[in-house]
Amino acid sequence: MLNKCYIQATSAISPQHTFEGEFHTQPFVASTRNLLNVIEPNYSGFISPNNLRRMSRLLKIGQTAALKCLVGSEFPVPGAIITGTGKGSLHDTEKFLKNIREYEETALNPTPFIQSTYNAVNGLIALQQKCTSYNNTFVHRGFSFESALQDTLMQLQEGVESVLVGSFEEMSEEHFYIKGRIGHWKEGATNETFLADNQTTGSIAGEGSAYFLVTAKPASRNLAVIEGVEMVYKPTTEQLGNRLQKFLAQHGNPTIDVLLTGENGDANFAHYYQYLHQQFSPSTTIIPFKQLCGEYDTASSFATWLATEILVHQSLPLSLQAYNTASLQNVQHVLIYNNFMGEQHSFILLSK
Amino acid sequence: MGERVFITGVGMITAIGDNVAQNLRSLQAQQPGIGYTQYIDTIYQSILPVAEVKHATATLAAMAALPNGGEGFTRTTLLGLIAMREALANANIEDASEVGFVNASTVGGMCDTENVYFDIVDPSKTGSFLQYVDTLDCADCTQRIADVVQFQSHISTISTACSSSANALMYGARMIKHGMLEKVVCGGTEALTRFTINGFNSLKNIDKQHCKPFDHQRNGLNLGEAAAYLVLESESSVKRNNSTVLAELSGYCNTNEAFHPTSPSPDGDGAYEAMQKALAMSGRQLNEVQYVNVHGTATLNNDVSEGKALERLFGSKVPKFSSTKPFTGHTLAAAGAVEAIFSVLAIQHSLIYPNLNFSERMEELNISPETQLLENYTVDNVISNSFGFGGNNASLVISSAQL
């Protein structure tokens, strides 16, 4: 079993007010449709104007969130940079595909091709911070961030002092349309309605980027502790339950104060969440999180960011006040359960 | 820390052979796999040479022994399945449920998606092409391979451009050392695409001739397609199961150059550090390395950078080195695993492969690659390099099997 790690800094660009100011007291940002786009920050404080002109949207989002996490921290040059992304820069992939067709394969600008490379953001972060050590990118749908987290725990156990671990994901209008063709989205839903209707299929699309600067040993801030991560591939509900019990047992069977779930309103996957709910006593406060960020490959990184916020503040943020929290106090353990399209299931355990 | 990691199975398909034995024969016969594409719809069909696997996708589906005829399977997945079946058989693995799988890919199922993409985005079009909607991302090939051969333990996919499968091998080895797995299959699969041909061509990185690594007149790479997987196994599992050991993965290192998004530093800082640290981990000395299978893409920048790094690391005693990319082309995400298997074969058969197409030493370097096939040349330790965009440098040390 891998050792835990200590979170020293976090950052998140999301459809909520997570990047600037105090998220805890910010109101819920409601969507008008079944696609949640991130609130893009002012990039100019993080990226030079020359670079900004060249960079595509996801590269800006991914690099800015990473820099926000590193700059001003105790470890501006981390011992490793490890990320997860399911889709990489969709805009660049789409643009290069179109350029090939439009210009009939001649006189193409290589920039979208370069930026479509899944590890492009990692390279930029390393370049900016002159970080020459270990650098890796995982690209496996709902295991992308989880794998990055597992690699992080391994690096720390191997003697690396600090790791920047995170994720970045975007949803383009074109890709939103494509995934709509195979039934990924719930017609007419918003982030205020999609969870209430789990009799129909489809969810709401989302995107975002979240990073964590973590250390093997306690350091100056210790916002929260990541106790462990567990991935389960295409399980039955029973197998899922067994793996949950095993995972919790490995961590001393802690009382779970808050369970953050990746419920996404899709009737195809509701039974996993219903089953999970039954595994916990009424003393566990169960809260879904995708109304805040939407559904995407690395949504569990947003949940990890949210769990850190809850552990730091020892209460729910204003945007989650709709959930009954009267009894919520002394939050010691937050568990995240997510699944992506019913295939990649994961647990992430955090503690105070 | 942790257990030693052994290689107990290999499987591959490249432009020079459908399996490991055929690849070895082509290397020994000095027969390259570079020619013109028969399967990619591109204006560069007869202009830019590529190293293509010489089978249509339907034939690959038959070779992959799929019960459903391969419907919905991309060429990327089929190449991967063929190599995977060989690797598992070679390691005598019949039940893969407890075996991990770390795959690598740079563009997923782009090879098939790019042909139907504009139908997929066109609301007026419907049809069977919609089954390819979800094949573009890199996890598609990993999961389809996993589901066919019934991997039920760890699965993941890495994408760090041209070093992807070297990083997959490293990650798998580390999981074994951490005691998380006893066996894990690592490698990558990459099919040729119009997307990557145009990508590298737009960077002016593709030679119109057969590539000439480490030659003064080199003018870029040739792209290739391949899949290659290595079964890694912990020392205790090897002993308990009496597994046949092919070689040891004795060292590895991943560094980042933090120099430029697509170019290596002129002095090869990242390559130097990756090789140096990988060798240190292996516990081998410089003079114990008999062969370096270089990244050697034949791009202007790579070969200067990598050559400088070799001179810095080994001084005046640079071991035999060669690039095998004139045989297989640059197979991107698969390259690290393809060349790791070539390193295993070099050790097993006491071979040094010739660096084809070399005639003139680079003026920046004092070293030249080996141009002859050397047989009966004892090889105990090989360094295999894979360097990618984003400054990602990976070096592996593969050593003769001594339990």
TrEMBL record, chain A:
Q: Where do the coiled-coil regions begin and end?
A: none
Q: Which residues form the Beta-ketoacyl synthase-like N-terminal domain?
A: 46-176
Q: One Pfam annotation, family name?
A: Ketoacyl-synt_2
Domain of life according to the entry: Bacteria
Q: Which GO terms describe its molecular function?
A: acyltransferase activity
Cited SUPFAM superfamilies: Thiolase-like
Could you identify this protein by its name?
Answer: Beta-ketoacyl synthase-like protein
Origin organism is Chitinophaga skermanii
UniProtKB/TrEMBL annotation, chain B:
* Spans traversing the lipid bilayer: none
Q: Which UniProt keywords apply?
A: Transferase
Q: Which InterPro entries match?
A: Beta-ketoacyl_synthase, Ketoacyl_synth_C, Ketoacyl_synth_N, PKS_Beta-ketoAc_synthase_dom, Thiolase-like
By its UniProt entry, which Gene3D superfamilies does this protein fall under? 3.40.47.10
Which biological processes are named by the entry's GO terms? fatty acid biosynthetic process
- Give every Ketosynthase family 3 (KS3) domain span: 1-400
| One GO MF term | 3-oxoacyl-[acyl-carrier-protein] synthase activity
Q: What PROSITE patterns does the record tag this protein with?
A: KS3_2 (PS52004)
Annotated Gene Ontology cellular components are:
cytosol
Please give the Pfam families that the UniProt record associates with this protein. Answer: ketoacyl-synt (PF00109), Ketoacyl-synt_C (PF02801)
The record's family statement is: Belongs to the thiolase-like superfamily. Beta-ketoacyl-ACP synthases family.
| Protein name (Swiss-Prot/TrEMBL) | 3-oxoacyl-[acyl-carrier-protein] synthase-1
Species this protein is from = Chitinophaga skermanii
